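Researcher: Please translate sequence to structure tokens.
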Amino acid sequence: MKQELQNKLFEKYPNIFRQKDLSSQETCMCWGITCGDGWYTLIDTLCEAIQQRVQFINGQKIKVKNNLKTLIPVKYQNDLICEATQVKSKFGGLRFYTEGGDDFTNGLISMAESMSYSMCENCGNPGSIRKASRIKTLCKDCSNKIYK
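Model: Translation complete:
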């Protein structure tokens, strides 16, 4: 991904990409987001949903009293975190690995990863798996440009 697009994601979601400045012994995020620009919007949308989930869980907890669920703003010692440890393309699909999260954030990630198989990694248009020197998800136009 172009440095400019990657930096936009890093600035917009500092809590998700907190590990970007750690060493290669600590995280794979030190290598940055290693996929094509076409998945920028997919990753941006995924991060927005993860951020909203984390903020909701950390800002409002559900309290059950007399069989009624009520939302109350409370801070707990074990608030939810979800930090990206690696974001890349592998076998034509997005891989978004995290530390932390919950079943909901894992579902969001699975959905985004599944969607990546029908979205061109280069331009974001509808695409499909193309096999040449590497397996990539590409639209017909990008495939023709890359694999002439």
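Researcher: Any highlights?
Model: The chain is about 35% helix and 25% strand.
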